[in-house]
Hints:
By secondary structure, the protein is an all-alpha fold. It has 19 helices and no strands.
Amino acid sequence: MALQQKGMHGAWVSRWTFIMAATGSAVGLGNMWKFPYVAGSNGGGAFVLVYLACILFIGVPVMMAEVMLGRHGRKSPVNAMRDIVSESSANLRWSYLGWLGVVAAVLILSFYAVIAGWALSYIIEMGSGVLKGVDGDAAAVAFNQLLNNPAKLVFWQTVFLTLCVAVVMGGVKKGLGVAVETLMPILFFILFGLLVFSFFRGNFSAAVDFLFSFNLDQLTSRSVLEAMGQAFFTLSIGMAAIMAYGAYMPQKASIGKTILIVAFFDSAVAIISGLVIFSIVFATQGIEPGAGPGLMFISLPVAFGSMPGGLLIGAIFFILVSIAAWSSAISLLEPCVAWLVETKNMDRFQANMIFAVIAWILGLGTVFSFNIWSGYQLFGFTFFDFLDFLTANIMLPVSGLLIALFVGYVVDKKIIASEMLGMHPKVQLLWQYSLRYLAPFAIGAVFIMGLYDRFS
Ligand code: PFF
């Protein structure tokens, strides 16, 4: 029984540690790099509103379902799914869902480590002063120099993956638990400091206007799709990470309340990051809010480089981004490591090395897509764009949809009742409604329209 309650990997010391871990997984490059530029290029306010609605009505219910599966299984996603499928006397094919998540996790980790490496290298770029007073062109040249230097990209990718292995090797309590309990308060502290800085030194009111003027005219069907995809990516849904973390969650903790807190923190960080970035961008003449992926690595250095003391603040900003990416990436490594430890009896170090090396090798494809392979195309994509598209637009919605259907229709009701003990019946009804109808319909629509949009 004790094993059933805790599993072989141990458990978080408290519900709070789970909240920090899940928030750490959720808050990452998606919030700080992607959210501001996606919101920026979709017109701001209206996009934000739809994004928040997607988080609350679709993201939270699916995330709860995923955590529930993990906590009931008390094992890595692959094995937890297998156990729950047999306990529910369901078709064995449902257990492939665990695999889908693990494969997606490795693919994402491979390119996530390369992009996180950019943030690491920008700590040095900012701190060293080379970007002082740069204009937009010079900042673009500096960024392209980084992208055109495979050795430098591989160096930072390796540093980042090493940092991840160092944490995950320590196990649930001493590795992941200690890391998130240390990193998350630092992250919130830096973010708050930057918010204060941007309030006094940036154009804060323009940023507030931009993010909160809900001008529904600007909303297109495509931006609704983007909002939904972003909501899924940012909550780390469908990629085994949250299921793995759920396996270490205390049995007594309420899944609904806990996940609402995590979703609140995640959304708050996205919005605060948006406020910080746009206050700084709007304070500098001639920088476009819809600058796209280069917003963080080109526009921000221009803005920071032109402010007194801005370079130090810029270095601190990239430390923040690196911490956020680090606490997300460890949640991608853990489900893979836990599976090897369970099934192959490996120790954590070996298991970490195997997956880190796989992610590193695959990551070389991403590194080269910015330079020596930039001319090669796979289905019309560079290698990096292909992985990004495959994971975010195909694997993630498919996995989220299947999780909703599996928990909505297939899982034994007794399992749900035992895991959701204490949840208000009306709330439970709403949750079930979302899993059975709203989420499958919305995710299905996003999936089909997303594919149509891309290939038509
Ligand atoms: N949620 C992370 C972000 O917003 O950057 C990305 C991520 C982490 C996605 C872990 C999936 C995952 F399993």
